[in-house]
Amino acid sequence: DVQLQASGGGLVQSGGSLRISCVASGFIFSNYGMTWVRQAPGKAFEWVSDITSGGDLTYYPDSLKGRFTMSRDNAKNTLYLQIDGLQPGDTALYFCARGSYDYWGQGTLVTVSS
Questions:
Q1: pLDDT digits over 52-87, tens only?
Q2: N or C: which end of the chain has fewer CB atoms below 10 A?
């Protein structure tokens, strides 16, 4: 079975940094582009970043460029999202998804205090 297990969320003060992870299993991880998506309380899902299967290219919405860095370790079947300069507006459930959005992880909660 395809599984995506996100972890690393927590409570962080505004201005801090956090790295969240997503461990994949049940498929050939290195064959797929991957995505991070977030959902703030009471809001719609928001695309955060994409990465190509080999990890050589990443994409971000203009609003998040510069603070978010997505990476992957194909040897460890693991996806990462480094978030710097955290702001209260970054408070959300962060989900990893396989590139075509056909499989999602359970989400990890990031809470930023002001």
A1: 999 999 999 999 999 999 999 999 999 999 999 999
A2: N
What number of other Cβ atoms are within 10 A of residue 112's Cβ?
20
Amino acid (1-letter code) at residue 55: G
Over the stretch 98-112, which tens digit does the pLDDT of each residue have? 988 999 999 999 999
CA gap 22, 113 in Å, rounded: 23
Residues 3 and 78: their CA atoms lie apart, in Å, by: 12
Q: Quick one: which of 19, 21, 22 has its CA closest to 4? A: 22
The string of pLDDT tens digits covering residues 6-44 is 999 999 999 999 999 999 999 999 999 999 999 999 999
Question: Would you tell me how many other CB atoms lie within 10 Å of the CB of residue 24?
Answer: 24
Q: Which residue has the tokens 């978030």?
A: 83
Q: Is 1 exposed, middle or buried (0-12, 13-18, 19+ CB in 10 A)?
A: exposed
